[in-house]
Amino acid sequence: MSKPPMLQIRDVETFYGKIQALRGITLDVHEGEIVTLIGANGAGKSTLMMTVCGEPHAARGQIIYDGRDITRLPTHEIMRLQISQSPEGRRIFPRMTVMENLQMGAAVADPAHFDEDMKRAFELFPRLKDRKDQRGGTLSGGEQQMLAIARALMARPKLLLLDEPSLGLAPLVVKQIFEVIKELNESQGLTVFLVEQNAYHALKLAHQGHVIVNGKITMSGTGTELLAREEVRAAYLEGGAH
After folding, report:
1. How far from chain centre, in Å, is Cα 145?
2. Could you give all domains of the chain from N- to C-terminal order, each with its CATH number?
3. Burial bucket for residue 34 (CB in 10 Å: 0-12, 13-18, 19+)
4. pLDDT reading at 141 higher than 70
5. Distance, CA of 172 to CA of 166 (rounded, Å)
6. Residue 81 pLDDT more than 80?
7. Which residues have CB under 8 Å from 26's CB, separation 6+?
8. Where is the signal peptide (predicted)?
9. Measured between alpha carbons, how far is residue 235 from residues 38, 42, 97, 168, 200 in Å?
10. Burial of 154 (0-12, 13-18, 19+ CB in 10 A)
11. Which of 54, 154, 177, 192 has CB 3.0 to 4.6 Å from 75, enough for a Cys bridge?
């Protein structure tokens, strides 16, 4: 019998006040996969990611992670279940050094692994090692994104949630960030749920992809299938394949 998905999102509806942001979202994230959700700005991508994290809670539907219903759990409890998020806009601690940011990420992990995890973070992102004593707020946008991902990894997640990791970054840095995501998945089997506007890079990476429009999933398939679809190319890839 095949294993159930690591993350199951079932008929989820989310509201901001009276405004409905998600309209019956259903999707699965299987262990060891990269699953990508693409869509235009305001389509509901980040809202879905935040709903998984319990902020806001789903008004209807169910979110099951690792066999456990987390739909109503508070955010701090969800984050203790080996789910880690690199949020949209990075949200690092600007007054803290790179090292201190990484220590904050490791707060929920076993301290015995700290040195090993720090070494791994610096191998993935050598620029962070060069800046380990520098305040987060003085880093470039690309370095801050690297720090946000490295901080999320310090929690030793089984599921990594990445919200718009390429937003506002130069194409070369975007390429580097996506290479790291691919390496984490291939070498460590890390399960990744990725929300992205950069459809080309995200779908190239994805085992499974979904398109969200106005809070509804309108298309699903493998990353390769979606990249080949004319309507996806027209809506999301024109001029976007750097």
Report:
1. 12
2. 1-82+158-242 (3.40.50.300), 93-156 (no CATH)
3. buried
4. yes
5. 10
6. yes
7. 9, 10, 11, 12, 217
8. none
9. 11, 15, 40, 19, 11
10. buried
11. 54
Separation of CA 91 from chain center: 13
The span from the CA of 182 to the CA of 168, in Å, is 20
Q: What is the pLDDT of residue 59?
A: 97
Cis peptide before 56 (omega within 30 of 0): yes
Query: Which amino acid is present at 200?
Result: Y
The sign one gets for the Cα dihedral 124, 195, 190, 171 is: negative
Cα separation, 217 vs 212, in Å, equals 4
How many Cβ atoms sit within 10 Å of the Cβ of residue 13? 16
Rounded CA-CA distance 221/168 in Å is: 27
